[in-house]
Known about the structure:
With 512 residues, the protein is α+β, with helices and mostly antiparallel strands. The chain is built from eight helices and 23 strands. The two termini are 122 Å apart.
Amino acid sequence: MKIDTSGSVDSSYFLPEAKKNKGKMSWVPWLLTVLLLGGIGFAVYRQLVIVPAQQARQKVLTVPVERRSLPIIVSANGTVKPERSINVSPKESGVLKELLVKEGDTVKKGQVLAKMDDSDLQGQLLQAQGQLAQAQANLQKAIAGNRPQDIAQAQAALDEAKANLQKAIAGNRPQDIAQAQARLKSAQAILTKAEDNFRRNQQLYRSGAISLQALNQARADRDSAQAAVNEAQQALALQKAGSRPEDIEQLRAVVRQKQQALALLKAGTRQEDIAAAKAQVIAARGALQTIQTKINDTVIRAPFDGVVTQKYADPGAFVTPTTSGSSVSSATSSSILSLASTNQVVANLAETNIPKIRLGQKVIIKADAFPGKTFEGKVSQIAAQATVEQNVTSFQVKISIVSDPQKLLRSGMNVEADFQVGQLHNAMVVPTAAVVRRQRGIAGVFVAGPDNKPVFTPIETGATVNNFTEVKSGLMGKERVLLSFPPGLRPQSTPRGVFPGMGGGGRRSGTL
């Protein structure tokens, strides 16, 4: 039996009719669910996003005019600088022996910073001390005068001179003359004996009993005896004649000399000699003080309270009494170190603000390095002469730092100084953002009118302080000024955040 399979048969033909209709309607619930969820999401989005945005666009922001007391501030940029800054060097050139501080150390006035080599000066000190001691001894000797022993010795010499003079005036004593006569007689006797001996020897020589030599010896004895007789005769004559007038005058001169010497010893040292001795003491003391001062200068002390900011030399280096320093470690330096005192703020203020600044005025200091932190200071100095840079005239104002116990402000930091120049009491103010300028330079604010429509009201403005502007006239104080406007009602005007003629931008807090 043979079956023909060439023709196709639809299998759905054999399915029941209800099952066919069920397959066609299964996707409809899914479509309805998606449509329902989409509608719910759109409703939520409209309520949370679209409606608040429309309300925000239609809402008009207003603020009331109010009265406030506002501080008036003059702001200026400044730099932290030390009040005093010097390079420390010795008074005399020499070798650095010790360095007792390092960079960053805080020192007090009079504190020892370094010591120089003073070995040469110590020898000069001993020499000067010896010279002073000698000069003082000479002065004491001059003041004390001559010793009693010196006066007694001079008195004895005078007495001796007087005795010799009296002896010369009185002449020789009889005893001396008699003694001279006795010496003459003795000589004459010796001469007589010598003559007799000579005559005998002549006779003996003629007879050949003695030699010629014996005769000559006898002759010499006779001549010697004759000379002795002559000498004795002269001595007797001198004794009988007495002293010569010349000898007496000479002895008198010696007496006068001894008297003057004794008078000088009794009178003591002259005042001129004492004054000269005192001058020598003063000179010796000055020389000693000069050496001592040089030794003291080898000890380098801090001239004021401060901080060691830089070291230029190490022990063993040769330094000189100049103020130059080198930041290169291998370079030859003249100074030992640099010392800076307490820091201060130096600011430049425009000449229009100088009349508002006074000594002792409170200043608030803000440093870029410490955001949100303020320091207190006060005006310590106002420059007497202006400086002109790029056609801008300004005055330098120095501010002493009052409150910085942690020493956070360091030299070279950039700061902003707010000078407290005054205060506005019970002033009528509006937000600066609400002040606008219409054409022709008329300043004013928009006040909320009927249906919150903006109504332009001209005002006279004063100072601008901390986003608020003073209203001197034009408002009663009960109005509400507009900060935002309904769509399509925003006026074409320039916000007045600055003063007339100053242009947009810039911070002008507290200037009048």
